[in-house]
Amino acid sequence: xxxxxxxxxxIPEGYFDSFEDKLMDKLSKTESTIPKDSxxxxxxxxFESFNESLKGKLDNEPKVISLFxxxxxxxxxxxxxxxxxxALNYNWSPSSELSFSDxxxxxxxxxxxNNDFELSPYEIAEVLPVTNTEYSDFxxxxxxxxxLLDYLNENVSDFDELNIEDNE
Length: 168
Fold this sequence. Notes:
transmembrane; transmembrane helix; 8 helices; single chain; mainly alpha
């Protein structure tokens, strides 16, 4: 509520100073403050014609409004039937658990391409099993000796590191 707005209700000056005295004066008077002429009057011959007017109103048949309209009953029945159909068609048996073989190869490749695991090729090679694999399984085309020599010249500084038999 905004206190800055003007209040349209105002109290006259000194109203509460003399309020108690004015109230006590009105209460001490014996005469009633209710007007003698009542505003509520019964029309002439009201009670003589009351029975006839009441019978006339009762003869008219009132409109009956049913408590359970048929449209609501149909709507409730249809919703119960729909719920029953859905419940009966639902497969309540638990589904078998998914296994790695259920995944498509394309999904697995997309997962590894889209997620960065921050693993080096050496760390990945440590996890992969090497049994029953051949060198040709990894390559779609054979490596030419020129490409192999170029790669070794660029990436290997000490050829003694390549001698696997001596390092063991």
